[in-house]
Design the sequence.
């Protein structure tokens, strides 16, 4: 059977260095092409791309000419069919002309080959969107509840709602800040990732049952899923830093008020076995900021870690170690504020080459605009704990 070939061209409003990086860096690949990537960007080095549905492509880099050419040999993990992907880049003033040639040995059916062409064409459309605007078009197709969530303290299941978007499916269904979500349909919710996975199994317009706990009462409510909405984020990183700094100031004011008159002995009490004390909550907030520092640093270096996910700032042993270093309420508050100041300093210091990577810069801005709300929910947790001790 004769081999098959097709060619796709795109003129992308970004320098060839960023387009080249999009095929040779794992963080960049995840931002436009796949959901998980592992790469060894040298000739003969391996490349692995996987999607949330479990499908995957794997292969090797056959040729690499920085800013000019990438050639890959890839095969699917299910049908074993192999394809050769050749990407050439040509600078044209401030744009890059990308030419992608895909070929195989003719083993794919005409229908499968047409689907492959559509897949790569859509992927390149998304690459153009990601590089020019920072918007991942895939995210816009995901169904959404319209909530922002945080880990549910020390609980093994559920996520706590920290914000409900106006006019969202969650708002219309009566979901409130402070609610804990335990399941969407038949899918259990253990953390942010499992909530996202549960939603990806659905379509916009689907009506799903959501398992909720509110003030100690467990119940179900029906939610009609809507389309995801992109946050309006500032393009100027100094504006972003100022917005985050203001949120920290407001939260620290409320946190200081919640802890007014609380002795160190009272803050150390654990109301029930396995629960946190007030000191544990403060240590968790400190560790959360340190976690954000590490993530921002990795994102700047385009070395975002991808591994078995566990939210380290909830690890009891780590929190106890923080408390050992800062044993009083005042010491913990001072350390928290110091770490928040470091977060703001990192945002103010974002380098131009990072800001030029618009998808990474947008993801950072979206995360940081919502991040302080995590602390606000824990202020309510502190108030609840103080009623028990």
Sequence:
């Amino acid at each position: 059977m004769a081999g098959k070939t097709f060619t796709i061209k795109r003129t992308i409003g970004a320098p060839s260095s960023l387009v080249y990086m999009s095929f040779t860096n794992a963080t960049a690949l995840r931002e436009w092409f796949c959901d998980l990537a592992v790469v060894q960007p040298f000739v003969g080095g391996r490349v692995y791309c996987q999607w949330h549905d479990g499908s995957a492509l794997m292969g090797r880099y056959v040729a690499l000419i920085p800013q000019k050419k990438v050639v890959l040999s890839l095969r699917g993990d299910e049908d074993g069919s192999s394809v050769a992907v050749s990407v050439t880049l040509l600078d044209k003033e401030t744009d890059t002309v990308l030419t992608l040639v895909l070929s195989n040995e003719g083993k794919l059916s005409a229908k499968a080959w047409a689907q492959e062409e559509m897949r790569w064409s859509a992927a390149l459309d998304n690459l153009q969107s990601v590089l020019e605007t920072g918007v991942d078009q895939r995210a816009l197709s995901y169904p959404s509840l319209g909530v922002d969530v945080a880990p549910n303290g020390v609980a093994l299941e559920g996520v706590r709602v920290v914000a409900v978007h106006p006019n969202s499916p969650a708002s219309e269904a009566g979901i409130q800040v402070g609610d804990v979500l335990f399941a969407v349909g038949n899918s259990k919710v253990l953390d942010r990732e499992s909530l996202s996975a549960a939603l990806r199994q659905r379509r916009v317009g689907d009506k799903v049952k959501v398992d909720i706990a509110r003030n100690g009462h467990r119940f179900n409510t029906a939610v009609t899923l809507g389309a995801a909405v992109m946050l309006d984020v500032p393009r100027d990183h100094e504006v972003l830093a100022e917005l985050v700094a203001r949120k920290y100031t407001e939260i620290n004011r409320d946190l200081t008020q919640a802890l007014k008159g609380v002795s160190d002995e009272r803050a150390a009490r654990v109301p029930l076995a396995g629960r946190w004390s007030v000191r544990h909550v403060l240590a968790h907030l400190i560790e959360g900021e340190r976690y954000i520092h590490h993530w921002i640093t990795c994102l700047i270096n385009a070395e975002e870690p991808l591994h078995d996910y566990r939210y380290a700032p909830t690890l009891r042993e780590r929190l106890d170690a923080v408390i050992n270093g800062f044993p009083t309420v005042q010491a913990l508050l001072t350390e928290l504020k110091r770490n928040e100041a470091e977060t703001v300093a990192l945002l103010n210091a974002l380098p131009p080459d990072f800001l030029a990577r618009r998808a990474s810069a947008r993801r950072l801005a979206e995360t940081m605009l919502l991040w302080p709300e995590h602390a606000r929910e824990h202020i309510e947790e502190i108030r609840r704990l103080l009623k028990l001790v």
The chain has a mean pLDDT of 90.
